[in-house]
Write the structure tokens for this entry.
Amino acid sequence: MMRKFVIATDTASDLPEQYYTEHDIVAIRLGFNMDGVLYEGEDGAHMDVKEFYAKLREGSMPTTFQVSPEQTKRTLAPILASGHDILVVAFSSGLSGTYNSYLVAARDLAKEYPDRKILVTDSLCASLGEGLLVDYVVKKADTGAELEEVFNYAEALKQHICHYFTVDNLFHLKRGGRVSATTAVIGTMLKIKPVLHVDHEGHLIPIGKAMGRKKSISALVDHMKELQILDYDDPIFISHGDCEEDVEYLVSLLKTSFGERKLFINQIGSVIGTHSGAGTLAVFFRGKRR
């Protein structure tokens, strides 16, 4: 490996543990509270993602918390102390204060380790959208590119990481203030499924709706047809909230429209899943614009 610095990200990127290990990525762990118990984060208990979605469906209402500057410093200081510089790819500032925590930590660590560099890019991405940006960053870094070059690459690329979601349950969007209570009730009765994306400021924005699940999944592919600028080696990332049959349907549509492609599929983790709910389905790809 020719990488000249350490890459760090957070678990809002929804990459599997194996990915972090295989690519030597430091994962800063976000956490959540459910039924009075602290999970994940720095010191929380572990909960399997399947169990998490089962509890959501049973009515549990988890809450999340952002990474603190102190947790960030505890994670990153040993890396700087060992003589390595760091590039941090952060969860969207449009959805969390985690990015600001990284900035505070980076400022403090710069004073403690003046001979080292720590750069933080606000991905303006979430879930495997953030994961897709990390994947591009890893590939760029592994060419031997310098820290500043890879940082600038990430800054330029992030506005081309497209996120398109549909959700199965409008009440999770209502909790987050994305739709009104009336919209949630009526939409559920009529089986209206919203289509959302993450905009250029990193906010989750509803952009349309479809009557029924299959039409909402087709709408994801329609947006991709309009925006994608995929080269042969560009991967397509898919994340889901425990809805594997819907993933299979999405994959079949993608193969029909784009042929055989590199697909990377993973569950939406507990932190993002707290806000999106079970049954969320998302596709991420490189596009002309967000």
